[in-house]
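Following up on my earlier thread - several people asked me to post the actual chain instead of describing it. Fair enough. Here it is, all 724 residues.
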Amino acid sequence: MEEVIEIENRHYILAPLPRADEHPSVLKHEETFAVFNRSGDIRPVGLGEEGVYHEGTRFISRLTLRIDGRLPLLLSSSVPQVNVPLAVDMTNPDLAREGRVALPRDQLHLLRDSVLWDGTLYTRIRLRNYGTTPADVRLEIAFGADFFDIFEVRGEKRPRRGDFIAPCVGDDWADLGYIGVDDVARGTRLQFSPKPLELTGSRVTFPGAVPAGEEREYQITATFTAVECGQDRASPLGFDQALERYMQSLTRSSAGDCEVTSSNPQFNEWLGRSAADLHLMITHTPFGLYPYAGIPWFCTPFGRDGIITAFEYLWINPEVARGVLRFLADTQADREDPEHDAEPGKIVHEVRLGEMAGLSEVPFGRYYGTVDATPLFVMLAGAYYDRTGDLALIESIAPNIERAIEWIERYGDRDGDGFIEYSRRSRNGLQSQGWKDSADSVFHADGSLAEGPIALCEVQAYAYAAFLVAGRMARVTGRRERADELTRRAQRLRAQFERSFWMEDLSTYALALDGDKRPCRVVSSNPGHCLFGGIADAERAAAVARTLLHPSSFSGWGVRTLANFEVRYNPMSYHNGSVWPHDNAILAYGLGCYGMGKLATEILAGLFDASRVMELCRMPELFCGFARRAGQDPTRYPVACLPQAWAAGSVFLLLQGCLGFTIDANRKTIFFLRPALPESVEHIRITDLRVGEASIDLEIDRRENDVNVHVARRQGDIAVVVKK
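Reply from S.P.:
Thanks for posting it. Predicted structure:
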């Protein structure tokens, strides 16, 4: 009998079993992503996340390779820094027939390469015989498709499911199909080359007769569409063609990146992997580039995640921010819809394409249950304008900026007290609507959960910054009276915030105010975002910095989401004591804005050390907040997304915070405020940094307690100002 697990938060990600593979391998292209084990197999074990997913549905749930019915021996599994192809080296185990070893182990080499392109998984298997005698084996691949919605994979139960279509099988192809409750036919077509020895609706067998010293090649393609079983389809590309097109697309999407390298090869690995992971997560939309949030659970557009990721990567390549702004402007809410927590002017929280979202079994088809994405949208618009001087885009989204400000003032301030609050309206939506959206993430010192409406400290900082940005944008577009009004609104909010949120005895700001305006007197990482938004008084900002870097909050690897003396502290929790790289990057950037780049280097150094022991130097969504112990690695979080966009982008914002580095395209100037570098990095080189029509190369050197910035190449009108 199946176990029924009751949980308070319906959308909680269940982890009833340990992950089947500690380091799963992933591929992604546009709306399709895949999660494999290290051998390149897909199996229904562990958390059950393995599979190939397309538009929110799992189109392959089983794909396992065997030699004569035996599991091949894994030699290595590697992913190049550009994340394609997934290459798995294997060999044969001892294969016995009639009571004797017919083929000794290590005679056959199997190279299994995989790449995703345009809704199709391409797999190539090369079988080479390194023995001195012929080998005659059978390669067997079992396959299957459960067509689960991603929320089913995460553990949610559905009232009913659609109907499977009986498999259709041809000479060299097999179709698997499903008609959903939404009446959409979803199909997986598998095609095989050369012609298989045997083929059924769940298994294919290839002959593996390989003379000594020779090689055989097999190709399997799996295409994910919504067509009828057995219908004629265009022939897929060959493996090499698909890989070439993927690489060409990657070159185009990264063409606007400047290059960052350092004197430390390990730091360069982190930089390279992070850039590659960001480009892996970036998806082309009709509005431009958009970084999807994370694999496997959040591989879809998220408003908050997209904005933060774009902000992290803004100085490297502003095209990401441009695509995010245009996408979010297009999906901005234009009416009240309580079931989806939508209100006019609000920026979307997430967009889903799966069956359950389409049927409103979950509210996330287009869901607006976030309190911070709307002011963050305005902040990103201002930062993008500063970075690029692109007035045309700002003018095109000026109505969206104005509607976002109207939402902040009308709907965001739910009780008219001047602060921005949230409270859930959708019965199935998120209970907590800040970035820490666990149900237990906002509470009082005694551990009791705060009752709403909730005014988070960081949201007030975002709103303050949004008012200032909107005021500047109004001034740029000739609306001076509106600009003055918004500037005064920001000043009032700042004064009110300092009166209501500051906790002198704890040297930090309150996490939040509850519905009765009682402060949540707990020490958390949230006040660090107040430096990012610029709302904090300078002296209090320094006090917040000291609190964040105290051992009760700083684990040695990074700043915890919650100090270790708080009642609800749990280093293994999602939001109450874990370490989030993007959170730390925002804190470091905020420190840099206040001229505390030297303190920001402590955060960068901790996360750099963590990256060195992460596989592929890939920064996860989060990891546990246990104190750093000599000779031990950071403790992994079991269901963290990997890769995850804003975790990948964290290194760039961390570095920017340490250097106190900003770009003002309108003034044609690059500024450094009290720049600093950690001891592990003596030199940074930034190549082909483009500002308007100009470009520049910079050399940044650490000399004892000082950092020098040198212009190595300059083309066009661009100045560099360093304030120490």
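The two ends are 68 Å apart (CA to CA). That should answer part of your original question.
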